[in-house]
Amino acid sequence: MTVVESIGPADPGFLEAARRHILRAWRYKPALEDGVAVPSSTVINLSFRLEDV
């Protein structure tokens, strides 16, 4: 993961906390083209309660 982006207004500290949480908890596999990892993007909608992070 290289970029975490907010679609709506969010405190920068909250976005950083969300990014850290996602990097600890989730595992990713790269997109492949002919067996070679290639850049890709996806949109994932997340909801957080303040006590979650």
From TrEMBL:
Origin: domain of life: Bacteria
Gene Ontology terms: biological process: transmembrane transport
Lineage: Bacteria, Pseudomonadati, Pseudomonadota, Alphaproteobacteria, Sphingomonadales
InterPro entries: TonB_C (IPR037682)
Residue ranges annotated for the TonB C-terminal domain, each copy included: 1-53
Source organism per UniProt: Sphingomonas cremea
Identification of the protein by name: TonB C-terminal domain-containing protein
SUPFAM superfamilies reported in the protein's UniProt record: TolA/TonB C-terminal domain
Signal peptide, first to last residue: none
